[in-house]
Design brief:
The structure is a single chain. With 163 residues, the protein is of the alpha+beta class. The chain folds into two domains: 4-83; 89-160, no CATH class. Strands 1-6-5-4-3-2 form a six-stranded mixed β-sheet. Strands 7-8-9 form a three-stranded antiparallel β-sheet. The protein has a three-stranded antiparallel β-sheet with strand order 10-11-12. The chain is built from three helices and twelve strands; from the N terminus they run ββββββαβββαβββα. It has helices spanning 70-83, 120-123, 153-160, and strands at 4-5, 11-15, 21-25, 30-38, 47-52, 58-64, 89-98, 101-108, 111-117, 124-126, 133-136, 142-145. The chain starts with a strand and ends with a helix. Helices cover 16% and strands 43% of the residues.
């Protein structure tokens, strides 16, 4: 079977688990245990969605999920909200550098957390043309500062020490 392109005319999605969906095609056939993933999760959030089977092989493809029926759009948005959950940093409270590694204590929308950053040059990224900063810790967890311009002066000072 080749790649299936999904839109509101060819199929609909139902959520079956936290990250999983089932695809019901126009002909009535059903494909279960699919995990939706964005191919461009930061730059193009509604387009180029792949549906992977249990072996992480692509089964179906959605060019733009806004072209699906409203229930399927809601299903994808709920799955993505769980899968791509990225804590938002509201303030940097403490920063220590030791042997080239950073240790940050931050306040997020999910509470205070302390984590390590291995390489400040590759793990702290300012998204050009926006105020957005993406941070990856040593355990590959991701954090986001949606707009660094709204941070307090102390947080900006700590952040710009490493950008």
């Amino acid at each position: 079977m080749g790649r299936i392109y999904v839109d509101k005319y060819t199929g609909r999605l139902e959520r079956t688990d936290v990250y999983q969906v089932k695809l019901t095609l126009k002909d009535g056939s059903v494909i279960e245990h699919l995990e939706p993933r964005r191919l461009f999760p930061f730059s193009n959030t509604t387009m180029f969605i792949t549906l992977l089977d249990e072996n992480e092989r692509e089964v179906a493809f959605i060019r733009d999920y806004t072209e699906l029926d409203p229930a399927s759009v809601k299903v994808l948005e709920e799955c993505f909200a769980e899968y791509y959950m990225i804590p938002r940093i509201k303030a940097l409270t403490k920063s220590e550098e030791k042997f080239g590694s950073l240790k940050w204590t931050v306040d997020t929308d999910r509470g205070q957390i302390t984590f390590r950053i291995r390489n400040r040059h590759s793990d702290i990224k300012l998204v050009r043309g926006t105020g957005r900063v993406l941070v990856r810790d040593s355990n590959d967890n991701r954090y986001e500062i949606p707009d660094y311009t709204v941070l307090d002066a102390h947080s900006k000072h700590l952040l710009f020490s490493y950008l």
